[in-house]
Amino acid sequence: MPDEDLPDALSDGGSADAGTDQARNLGDAAARGVSVVLATQALRVALQFGSVVLLARLLTPEDFGLVAMVTAVIGIAEIIRDAGLSSAAVQAAQLSEDERTNLFWANLGLGTACALVIVASEPLIVAGYGEPRIGPIIYSLAFVFMISGANTQYRSDMMRRLKFRQLSTSELSAQFLAIVTAVSLALAGAGLWAIVAQQIVTAAATFLINVANLRWNPGLPKRGVSLRRFFRFGFGVLGTHGLAYLTKSAANVAIGAHLGPAPLGLFNRAYQLLMTPLQQIDAPMTSVALPVLSRVQDDDERFSRYLAKTQLVACYGTSVLLAVAAGVAHPLVLVLFGPDWIGVVPIFVVLAIGGIFRTLSTIAYWIFLARGRTGAQLRMDLFARPVMIALMVGGLPWGVTGVAVGHGIAFFLYWLLAFVNVQRVTGVDVRPLFVTAVRTATLVSAPCGLVAWGLASWLHVWPFFEVVAGVLGAGVYLLLAAAMLPIVRHDLVEAVRIGRRALKR
């Protein structure tokens, strides 16, 4: 096979080491991983959007707000039960069977401990909100963390072995089953318990399917097998993820405590409308990027090339998507949720703009993880995250939209700080990444969003056609920009080329 035909969706096909077996195998694995992600995530996004739309039309903002009150507080247990050990297992150059077994028991123990602490804390959480209706929700969701703890190393093992197809299939199947359960319960009049059941079924089904696929019996814990190196790595990830979660949950807790469940329900739907595409793109792409980047962490040339290609796809994918979504927010909310949820519009517009920078900062996260510098990221976040929380909570006097504005400003500043710090700590030159991001935002994302907003606002027809007109207008602008601006044409062709190479696998 000629070098230029190397099926590496993230390479440029002309590197000097492309002919080696290692490069060929890794390129194939990366391409297969990206291909699986692209194929399955389209289905996951459709399912998740279907869930968001159907449940929003069957339930009330207060239903979502009450559940969000609980998850904003107890959700930190999801970070603790993982303790960064999933990433540590994927990143490790060598992992013995005994270490793998002990990691399983460590995550299960952490998940069980989290469940017991949550149950014991129920009176404090109820008293803190002054809302007795959330007590049964706390008890019901607590033991989800035991299931997730048991699943942690099954999922990590499939990531480590680059079994992206099996991993995607299990998560897609579990999501489908959970959505069917939730919608059925909502139609039966179960109210907020439809949302609770969706979370329980997702965790349980994912675990059972992963066990069936992997056919791994961890056995009993192994004495004399140390996990110190994994906990050392995981501590930085735990701290970073914990601070990120506190940043997210602080807004929910503040809104729920000061404004009540109904405003929190509006914020929650706007946030879910933002995070549905982001979670279905960012998390799986991390599952592909982390093991691949970890294997080339000592090859600066290939490492930088993979980063550049991945970010280009993100800029022409996620960033443009969010900008256009913000532009057509008003008719989009009417189509998806109906007129009762019109209060979501200004919140979503601001969150979507901030979400662009949230996505771009993920690149820095990948670099920290792949280079094993989780401690450095934690030290950065110990300074940055409290400032971000202050910016979000500081918007409370202006209501839910004020909190959303603080959210957007916080993630813009975090993106700048993360890029500066990751270059200082790891030595990776991020200037090309920064230039690409700024160029795409000014020449592509922002104009596409403005064109979509202009057309959607100008038309006064059925909201669905306003959304379609806005999206088509943004597409026409993108084609004109590619025709008139060589740099945009080059970037767009490169992004399409990477996607096509991935799909061929």
In terms of topology, how is this protein built?
Elements: H1 21-58, H2 61-74, H3 76-82, H4 85-91, H5 97-120, H6 122-129, H7 135-142, H8 144-160, H9 164-187, H10 193-214, H11 228-258, H12 261-295, H13 300-327, H14 329-336, H15 344-370, H16 374-393, H17 399-426, H18 431-458, H19 463-484, H20 486-504
Helix pairs in contact: 1-9, 1-12, 1-20, 2-7, 2-11, 2-12, 3-5, 3-8, 3-11, 4-8, 4-11, 5-7, 5-8, 8-10, 9-10, 11-12, 11-16, 12-13, 12-15, 13-15, 13-18, 13-20, 14-19, 15-17, 16-17, 18-19, 19-20
How would you describe this protein?
This is Lipopolysaccharide biosynthesis protein. Pfam families: Polysacc_synt_3. The structure is a single chain. By secondary structure, the protein is mostly helical. The protein has a domain at 59-226. It contains 20 helices and no strands. It has helices spanning 21-58, 61-74, 76-82, 85-91, 97-120, 122-129, 135-142, 144-160, 164-187, 193-214, 228-258, 261-295, 300-327, 329-336, 344-370, 374-393, 399-426, 431-458, 463-484, 486-504. Helix 11 (228-258) runs antiparallel to helix 12 (261-295). The longest helix has 38 residues, at 21-58. The protein starts with 20 loop residues before the first helix and ends with a helix. Mean pLDDT is 81; it is low at 1-20.
